[in-house]
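Class prep. Sample record?

___
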Amino acid sequence: MLARPKLARPGSTSLKRLNVSIRVLGIVVIAALLSGEILIRLIGLLDFPLYSKSEELGYIPAANQRGSYQHRNEWAFNDLSMGVREPYDPHGSDRNIFLIGDSIVLGGNPIPQQLRLGSLLAADCPRVWPISAGSWAFLNELRYLHLHENLLGEVTRIVFVLNSADFGSASIWSSEATHPTHYPMSGLLYLTRKFFFHESDASATSIDNDWRAELRYLLSVYRGPLTLVLYPNKVESKNDTVRKMNLDVHIPELRSDRITVLSLAEDPNWSPDYYRDDIHPTATGLRELATFIRANAPECDELQRHSSTP
């Protein structure tokens, strides 16, 4: 007797096709993810600076690192986490200026090292040592100097660049997305979290906010001059009332015979067009800020006079 051919169960062919489609789709998705990961690394999107957590400072750029974001924006931090390639050596110049701030001084990934504030100042006024971290408060910056007070005897001038958000509590580390301490396993997940979920660069803050006591300590151990540059955000640059209420209100308690307080808003060349977002300067803005600081630093002015003398 001939065997009767088996008949396919109703829907079994469709189910097989569905399973094949799911497998193919899975392979395509995995291939796309792997391609994305490879592409992210090839174009250098993960070549950014790392941070170190610090009990005293909250966080700080890790020492002795360098790289090139997207293979075009070079960056470097030396042995003391200063934003320069060279190890700290104050003996190479008779002028050593500490430039301290948050992301305004840091510059960030979009700005190559040679166009950041410290490099622009150092081009005409050696030697400038930039010290900064994104979202640092005034108190974080003062504590860096407290930790390294042994360096202060050879510092000609200390320049702070401060905005109205800096006169509060010290910033502390809070997120790998904003202040990474290691490179991510998945570049896709990291960039998705950072850019599509719009995690702010702002750090968490502690309840520790006594920057006045830390400033008094600095003045007790450092005998040189201090320059405090008050940097307005974009709204404050347009609105004098807001600026005076949020930023200029600190001038009376800051200014002294040892401290020069400068308001960038008084620079006739400064413009609201010099911002690339709510607070960070464009490349043109950085050049103007460097010019403003240089014009108000006697060491730089003296150097320029000597260089222009026949």
